[in-house]
Design a protein that fits this description.
GO terms for molecular function: pyridoxal phosphate binding; transaminase activity. The longest helix is centred in the last third of the chain and has 19 residues. This protein has 12 helices and 12 strands. α4 links the parallel β2 and β3. 37% of the residues lie in helices and 13% in strands. The strands form 4 sheets. It has a 4-stranded mixed sheet. It has 371 residues and is α/β, with parallel strands linked by helices. α3 packs across α7 and α9 runs parallel beside α12. It has 2 domains: 236 residues, 3-Layer(aba) Sandwich (Aspartate Aminotransferase, domain 2); 123 residues, Aspartate Aminotransferase, domain 1. It binds pyridoxal-5'-phosphate (PLP). Pyridoxal-5'-phosphate binds next to α3 and α4.
Length: 371
């Protein structure tokens, strides 16, 4: 049996549709390839599905974070609190507007940023808090929202990996003043290319994001630039493909959730052998990646490789320890939670098209290693 970590057949059932849509958009008399009626339809569907006041489609998840940071007028001299253990766009999008990413440590179990660390890093220069949901766990949004409200700070919620997740009845992406999803291939609602969205209930921020995604234009008067913006537009072929994929999304997400439930049930008893499974349950959980924390990570990884099971190590170096962000890592500061999860996380396959036998094989293999 071979179970690659990144399966090449994620869109196997949709190949013919993709070809058909390529032809359809390519030969459409309108000849509009970005920000057309299909993009508008996708935005509308996602508005209805999430309940967001507005959804603005853009070039990628990174593009969405860039637009969110820019829409809040964050710039030089400003600080944004971001997770130390995360995907690098949480820090680069802040640095790229000339502001300072301030790294908050991760909780060593849930791997998301620790609200206590966030609170202690707030200064008079702080302009926003940017929590991110990581792997299968949403950040502690109630506490972060409470801290942000107390300090009168906006929240940019990086929900790149958490589309479809719900915490205390509120969908991921709607906890922040601005939220973002990514459609990068392997994300929950991944696609055959690049894409992302910004979600917000605040009409003024939505208007700014819309302008900023297309060079500061308002979508009505061409070549009138209200502000300096970006090229972060959405592709019509991808919009058509995502519209086609959207009705199946809840089922695929549910399948991922079932696999995660099963894994957690199997792995929780291994705690005294140095295996930490994510917390069980469905509240505040997403199913982008299923990561365990393992003391003997390299040994388990080699064992699973031998058994044909692909694994993946995410973020082996915490962001503040990366050469790119050295100037934002204050001397003498440590991020022990982030360093620990960088050393221990190991992700195992969790794809909606895995069969029950595949899932059992993975779980059995992990358990056998510890027997
Ligand atoms: C993937 C990801 C992004 C960036 O999304 P892209 O669409 O790849 O640009 C941002 N934040 C997190 C947490 C991610 O996992």
């Amino acid at each position: 049996m071979t179970l690659p970590f990144f399966p090449p057949d994620l869109f196997e059932g949709d190949r013919d549709v993709l070809l058909k849509l390529l032809h359809e958009v390519g030969t459409d008399p309108e000849q509009k390839f970005i920000l057309g009626r299909r993009t508008a339809a996708l935005e509308k569907e996602l508005r209805e599905m999430t309940g967001a006041g507005d959804v603005i489609a853009c070039g990628s998840g990174t593009g969405a974070l860039t637009l969110a940071v820019h829409a809040l007028d964050i710039g030089p001299g400003d600080e944004v609190i971001v997770p130390a253990f995360c995907c690098q766009p949480v820090a680069s999008t802040v640095a790229n507007v000339g502001a300072t990413p301030v790294f908050a440590d991760a909780d060593p179990w849930t791997m998301v940023l620790d609200p206590d660390a966030v609170e202690s890093l707030i200064t008079e220069r702080t302009r926003a808090i940017m929590p991110a949901h990581v792997f299968s766990i949403m950040a502690d949004m109630p506490r972060i929202a409470e801290i942000a409200a107390r300090h009168d700070l906006p929240v940019i919620e990086d929900a790149a990996v958490a589309q479809g997740a719900v915490l205390d009845g509120r969908p991921a992406g709607l906890w922040g003043d601005l939220g973002v999803f990514s459609f990068f291939q392997v994300k929950a609602f991944g696609t055959a290319g690049e894409g992302g969205v910004v979600l917000t209930d605040r009409p003024e921020l939505a208007r700014r994001v819309r302008e900023l995604r297309n060079h500061g234009q308002d979508g009505i008067t061409r070549f009138l630039h209200h502000r300096i913006g970006h090229n972060s537009r959405f592709d019509e072929i991808i919009a058509a493909f995502q519209l086609h994929r959207l009705p199946g999304f809840p089922d695929r997400l549910e399948r991922r959730a079932q696999i995660a439930d099963y894994y957690t049930e199997r792995f929780t008893p291994l705690r005294d052998r140095g295996v930490v499974a994510p917390p069980p349950g469905r509240n505040g959980r997403c199913y982008y990646v299923y990561s365990l924390l393992i003391e003997r990570r390299e040994d388990l990884r080699a064992y699973l490789t031998e058994r044909g099971i692909g694994t993946h190590i995410y973020y082996p170096v915490p962001l503040p320890l990366q050469p790119a962000f050295a100037e934002f890592a204050p001397e003498g500061v440590r991020w022990p939670g982030a360093e620990q999860v960088s050393r221990r996380n190991l992700a195992i396959p969790i794809w909606p098209h895995m069969s029950d036998a595949d899932v059992e094989y993975v779980a059995d293999s992990v358990c056998e290693f510890f027997d």
